[in-house]
Design goal:
With about 130 residues, this protein is mainly alpha-helical. The protein contains 6 helices and no strands. Helix 2 runs parallel beside helix 3 (about 45-55) and helix 4 (about 60-80) packs antiparallel against helix 5 (about 85-105). The protein starts with a helix and ends in an 11-residue tail after the last helix.
Length: about 130
């Protein structure tokens, strides 16, 4: 529960688990859903990963992806003025976040975003 309260998925690594106890996978799943961080789903495999995608997907809306797109655009505009290692790292992080968001996003949310702003998701995005 500490991991879920703090949003720190790394705290899940300390869980030993056991019969009838909270498992590491359950911890990661709960943190991913409570923080709406689809990147944490990538720490899971099999059924746990699918459950994470299923629970988190409806929470990732077109508006949330478009917010990340706006941040990406701002950083790209700043980088056009000159190289900056910190900004480049931020850009990479946001691009990864967007990719992970698109991977768990439901098809209906993607369609909703398309209606709002034209085709905003890339063809390499999965259509869940």
């Amino acid at each position: 529960m500490v991991a879920e309260n703090t949003g720190d998925v790394d705290a899940c690594k300390n869980i030993k688990g056991g019969q009838m106890s909270y498992s590491k996978d359950e911890c990661i799943l709960d943190v991913a859903v409570s923080t709406e961080n689809p990147s944490d789903c990538n720490l899971l495999t099999g059924d746990a990963h699918q459950q994470c995608v299923t629970r988190l997907g409806p929470k990732i809306t077109a508006d949330k992806v478009l917010e990340v797109d706006d941040q990406i655009e701002l950083i790209k505009n700043e980088l056009a003025k000159g190289s900056d290692a910190n900004l480049e790292a931020q850009l990479k992080g946001l691009q990864d976040k967007r990719k992970d968001m698109m991977a768990v996003m439901t098809k209906s949310s993607k369609t909703s975003g398309t209606k709002k702003s034209g085709t905003w998701w890339t063809s390499s995005s999965s259509g869940k």
